[in-house]
Specification:
Helix 1 (13-25) packs parallel to helix 5, helix 2 (41-53) crosses helix 3 and helix 5 (117-129) crosses helix 6 (133-161). With 164 residues, the protein is α/β, with parallel strands linked by helices. Helix content is 51%, strand content 15%.
Length: 164
């Protein structure tokens, strides 16, 4: 396993599914669980410790509201931790963003945009690609495909607008 994903609640699954799908498409091994920084802190610690023993190199933590999960995970590991703030009422993810991004000096967490699960998986892949040429090639191909898609869309818009 290379990536360990922790969600603060099962309600975060719909946001995190694109990250899992992307990891699968890159053939990156992962483990996933639900654990709360506040309600099940021992479960969080055990998952981090077990994941590291099983080869995790990067952690992705998704949480809403008082989103301290990424910071708690970062306190248990020296592996890179990527936080995904989840949008929740009443602040629509702003509270989650601040709780994730405002880490004290010495305990870093890379923070994605609110609901930025797909980018968390891409960032994890980039971290792993530093030492894995296969993942690096898949990232290169992924970006080439994105570029090709944009070219198609630009051509379509030109035609739809009647530009020659």
């Amino acid at each position: 396993m290379k990536v360990a994903i922790v969600m603060g609640s099962d309600s975060d699954w719909s946001v995190m599914k694109p990250a899992v799908d992307l990891l699968k498409s890159f053939e990156i091994e992962f483990a996933i669980t639900v654990a709360s920084a506040h309600r099940t802190p021992k479960r969080v610690q055990e998952f981090v410790e077990t994941s590291e023993k099983n080869g995790a190199k990067v952690f992705i933590a998704a949480a809403g509201c008082a989103a301290h999960l990424a910071g708690v995970i970062a306190s248990y590991t020296t592996c890179p931790v990527i936080g995904v703030p989840i949008s929740a009422e009443p602040f629509k993810g702003f509270d989650s963003l601040l709780a994730t991004v405002q880490m004290p000096s010495g305990v870093p967490v890379a923070t994605m945009a609110v609901n930025g699960a797909k980018n968390s998986a891409l960032f994890a892949a980039e971290v792993l690609a530093v030492t894995d040429e296969n993942i690096r090639k898949k990232l290169f191909d992924y970006r080439a495909n994105m570029e090709a898609e944009i070219e198609k869309k630009a051509s379509y818009v030109k035609k739809a607008a009647g530009e020659k």
